[in-house]
Write a structure and sequence with these properties.
With 171 residues, the protein is of the alpha+beta class. The chain is built from 6 helices and 7 strands. A hairpin with a 2-residue loop joins strand 4 and strand 5. The chain is globular, with a radius of gyration of 17 Å.
Length: 171
């Protein structure tokens, strides 16, 4: 597994995955799925990954953020929180709150779900080559789109840069 992660994190890793998605979509999606992991939690006692959250806008929520740690020479995503620094001075907490908002009111609401936070070990995955490879899939490759990393790429692109452009264009 370490070799796969190391290869994905080298320069040109995204291009290799895009080429694989283009030629053998199932294999590319499986590799992306293998690169999808839980982030390192810096302070699980004071700032754990939530197990439940409010998902009103869809079945998936994505964020394209930095915050990493080196583990065995590999870059690994990290859910950061520093107990020695005032929360007001920790910029990552703002996106944490937006990414996984606290449940307000009754926890038995229709849009409150159990969640599993994952991170993709492939830097710069929001790449046009990945999208171009996905557009070249055939009907028989529909299962590729059931993979969490593929859904994450699509949702992340739609939620962040594309949706505001669509709103401007449709005014």
């Amino acid at each position: 597994m370490d070799m796969l992660i190391k290869e994905a994190q080298l320069s040109g890793g995204v291009d290799k995955i895009a080429a694989l998605l283009y030629v053998v979509p199932f294999a590319g999606a499986e590799i992306l799925d293998a690169l999808c992991v839980k982030p390192i939690i810096q302070d699980a006692a004071r700032h754990p990954l939530p197990a439940r959250t409010w998902l009103q806008s869809g079945p998936l929520r994505c964020a394209y953020q930095d915050g990493t740690a080196k583990v065995r020479g590999l870059t690994w995503p990290r859910w950061e929180f520093n107990a020695e620094v005032d929360a007001a001075h920790q910029k990552q907490l703002a996106w944490h709150k937006k990414f996984i908002p606290k449940i307000v009111g009754d926890i038995r609401q229709d849009n409150v779900y159990d969640v599993d936070v994952k991170a993709l070990l492939l830097p710069n995955v929001l790449d046009v080559d990945i999208l171009m490879a996905l557009t070249r899939t055939w009907e028989t490759h529909g299962h590729v789109f059931s993979k969490l990393p593929i859904q994450g790429v699509i949702y992340c692109l739609w939620d962040q840069p594309l949706r505001p452009l669509h709103k401007v264009a449709s005014v």
